[in-house]
Amino acid sequence: MRYLVTGAAGFIGFHVAKRLLDAGHQVVGIDNINDYYDVSLKEARLNLLAPYEHFQFVKMDLADRAAMAQLFSGPRFDRVIHLAAQAGVRYSIDNPHAYADANLVGHLNVLEGCRAQGTAHLVYASSSSVYGLNTEMPFKVADSVDHPVSLYAATKKANELMSHTYSHLYQVPTTGLRFFTVYGPWGRPDMALFKFTKAILDGYAIDVYNHGDMQRDFTYIDDIVEALLRVSEEIPAANDQWSVEKGSAGESSAPYRVFNIGAGNPVKLTAFIEAIEAATGLKAKQNLMPIQPGDVPATWADTEDLFNAIQFQPQVGVNEGVAEFVRWYKDFYLS
Ligand SMILES: NC(=O)c1ccc[n+]([C@@H]2O[C@H](COP(=O)([O-])OP(=O)(O)OC[C@H]3O[C@@H](n4cnc5c(N)ncnc54)[C@H](O)[C@@H]3O)[C@@H](O)[C@H]2O)c1
After folding, report:
1. Which one, 13, 78, 87, 88, has least CB within 10 Å?
2. Is 62 in the pocket of ligand 1 (CB under 6 A)?
3. DSSP secondary structure, 12-28, as one string
4. Hey, whose CA ends up nearest to atom 15 of ligand 1?
5. pTM of structure
6. Using one digit for the tens of pLDDT, what is the confidence trace for 12-56?
7. Residue 13: CB within 6 Å of ligand 1?
């Protein structure tokens, strides 16, 4: 099949593209390779995709309406996997406009492209951050998510709303995936695992927010890719029996779904740091800090709906996954 993967130079997009190419599919990857974090890491990911005969990379900005219209005026994509976005909760405090451009204008341009092509299925990244002020655990898709605590989260919720509109008005089948703290090899330098591993190996202290009283539903990249690709084959159908009053918030009378995609197993930050210590063989020096604006203290995904749809349970635990990351980090940066 012919896939469009947006954000192909990014952490998750790279892994998805590689997995598709390994399976023999055609992949068109787009990315603007912005400098939100180390550009050379994005280029190194692309260098691994470049040799595949069925890979084509186009450097472009999602927010460039004319370029996006041009992209979608070419041969039809069987699936659109939309992962490009301005990510990161803390960066959105100081750089709100980057989120409006990439996540709102960019998402609209993807939806317009799917409408123009009659795309069979758009799968896009939402985020666990949409749960904002919610405290009842585990987080369920049926819960209200009207109280985000960062502009990033608000744009991700907006993506779900915009997608619903296009599913309803134009019958574009859409599935939104609320990712829960994805980690693994080729991961993002702005995320805790990368920052902690680097600091521990370099002998610096790590900043531990909320004095370590945090928990995250860490989800290993291979599990994310497997689940995402299974989901992409589950094209949502319009459900005439559904109503706002009686149906789930993750479904609709339109061809629309939203799932949590997490391990379903929250891990304390202290245990996560212990896993990095075990993998590096070094003890972490810790600066205990207050919680940062825009952050939430805990996340935990209810994944029952996802399991019912694709019969998949994440396979990789935190100790194993962290060890894989540390192996990659040492190989990539230190050898
Ligand atoms: N990694 C996680 O834990 C996590 C959690 C929740 C949600 N998500 C979402 O998953 C998706 C992928 O995240 P990731 O961790 O791979 O992040 P990433 O930053 O590594 O990848 C995103 C890619 O999109 C590209 N990009 C950004 N703005 C663009 C634009 N305007 N035009 C074209 N390309 C652009 C970036 O250059 C980057 O390569 C994002 O939508 C993110 O919000 C990730």
Report:
1. 78
2. yes
3. HHHHHHHHHHHTT-EEE
4. 11
5. 0.98
6. 999 999 999 999 999 999 999 999 999 999 999 999 999 999 999
7. yes
